[in-house]
Amino acid sequence: MNREADRTGLRVIRAGIDTYQQPVVYMHRDCEVCRSEGFAALTRVSMRIDHRELIATLNVVVSDLLPADAVALSEAAWSAIQPEPDAIATFYHPEPPRSAGALRAKVFGQRLEEADYLALMQDTVHNRLSDIELAAFVTACAGERLDHGETTALTRAMVAVGDTLDWGEGPVLDKHCVGGLPGNRTTPIIVAIVASLGYRIPKTSSRAITSPAGTADTMEVMAPVELDLDAMRYVVEREGGCVVWGGNVRLSPADDVLIRVERPLDFDSDGQLVASILSKKVAAGSNHVLIDMPVGPTAKVRSAAAADSLTGRLAGTAAALGLRVAVNRSDGRQPVGYGIGPALEAADVLSVLRGDPDAPADLRERSIALAGDLLDLVPGNVIGRGRGLAEQSLASGQALAKFMAICDAQGGFTEPKFARHRADVLAPRNGTVMAIDNRRLSKVAKLAGAPVSPAAGLVSRWRIGDRISAGEPMFTVHAQSKGQLEYALDYTQACPTIFDLREDPT
Q1: Tens digit of each residue's pLDDT (9 = 90 or more) over 300-358
Q2: Which residue ranges in the chain fall short of pLDDT 70?
Q3: Domain Pyrimidine nucleoside phosphorylase C-terminal: where (predicted)?
Q4: Max Cα separation, the chain?
Q5: DSSP 7-70
Q6: d(Cα 348, Cα 416) in Å, to the nearest integer?
Q7: Strand pairing of 88-92 and 44-49?
Q8: Is 268 a catalytic residue?
């Protein structure tokens, strides 16, 4: 008997629903396939169209929005399987994921081996694990539940299931920031400086996970970032560097899936953080990497002890993978730059590269310092000389010219555009800024619409130690709609301690 011929097929239509990279299919509850196969809401289903197959999560429609003889595909599912017009899909119960035993063992606190992590990452990239199962894995690895050996095994597994680049002999440089600090958009400046001095720096960057902007979001305001591997290679071979979105080049696709799951959970572990960072560096072909680690009470790394632990894990895993890594601990107590949000951070980047007198001095200084430290990593370079080279590249306009050339190679430069609606948040009294809550300041920018609305966010020039007079703007909120502006302003009223002001003595 030909069971394939006996299966009922469903017409494929496009749902037009964004499920954030998770393939989802929609069937009516009276659908013959649903009833005969025993499918229910959140069932994992295997969908086949011709010789293409995709595992997706089922959502059940109970209204008349969807005919019973059709299946609707989310944007992620549609993109993954790319059905032809009038396509017919058949459905099956997928085989249990091969890594199910390893996942269960990790949930119950057992230590996994390298083969276990490889199976888990293979099932992750082939969509054999549901988001619920992946959330269980992320949670089981949180805190200190990954030792050094497991961190290395997870990193190697992430590299193994994606593509890797080989740039040949010689140093290939990279820089990464651990994150947790608003603004701090040093990467485009560092790439421009390093590439202008003749070094290769193929930078793949992330979009925002829980922040108002990722490097890819900010760079996309100025140039295309969704390049494929061939286009990325062309840019680097032509200009020496690039700043592209890592999610489009599949250099560590398992990490992209885990990031999707971590996003609503709003946490990760040191082990997963290290695996995420270093898997992308190995896959991108980098061999000399500088890690910027802001440390502060409202940054991602909150204490010297936490920084010591993370630095040790980074160093141990990097050594096992043959990477030369240096960690630069920086001030994580307050934002860097004026803008928070993609377009506003892009404006800061350009003002530093253009040498504007009003450019944020802290962003310029941090970019020079980090670029100098990265250049000092290169074998044969004189330690301490890198900073001078970086400063000269900026001052001469060499870095700006290289940045514009990189933008041109990636598809063309665009000047940042700014939001239509703005409002100042005023200081309630005279005082000196004693502390700034980075997390709450970032939340204001997100409530204003960043990064979904690239022009949204906020601008603040105050720093710890500055004196503010009552009625002066502490920061200015930017939004594309009045509703988003009001939403952000309402939050500032509910959280008046974003800026900790010490009242002046009377």
Answers
A1: 899 999 999 999 999 999 999 999 999 999 999 999 999 999 999 999 999 999 999 99
A2: 1-6, 267-268, 504-506
A3: 432-499
A4: 93
A5: SPPEEEEE-----TT--EEEEETT-HHHHHHT--TT-EEEEEETTEEEEEEEEEE-STTS-TTE
A6: 10
A7: antiparallel
A8: yes
Q: Residue 276 to residues 155, 184, 272, 458: CA-CA distances in angstroms?
A: 7, 20, 6, 29
Under DSSP, is residue 202 helix (H, G, I), strand (E, B) or coil?
Answer: strand
Alpha carbons 43 and 58: distance in angstroms, whole number: 5
Q: Which of 177, 96, 180, 103 is nearest to 141 (CA)?
A: 103
Closest CA to 449 of 213, 179, 266, 182: 213
Q: Is the peptide bond before 264 cis (omega within 30 degrees of 0)?
A: no
Outline where 60-184 has alpha helix (H): 75-81, 100-107, 114-125, 131-140, 148-160
The 10 Å Cβ neighbour count of residue 46 is 16
Sign for the pseudo-dihedral over CA of 236, 241, 245, 251: positive
Domain 173-249+268-410 maps to which CATH number in 2.60.120.10, 3.50.50.60, 3.40.1030.10, 1.20.1090.10? 3.40.1030.10
pLDDT of residue 2: 46
Domain 3-92 CATH assignment equals 1.20.950.20: no
Length of the chain in residues, anyone?
Answer: 506
Taking residue 146's Cβ as centre, other Cβ atoms within 10 Å add up to 26
Catalytic-labelled residue, pool 268, 292, 348, 362:
268
Same fold for the pair 173-249+268-410 and 421-502: no
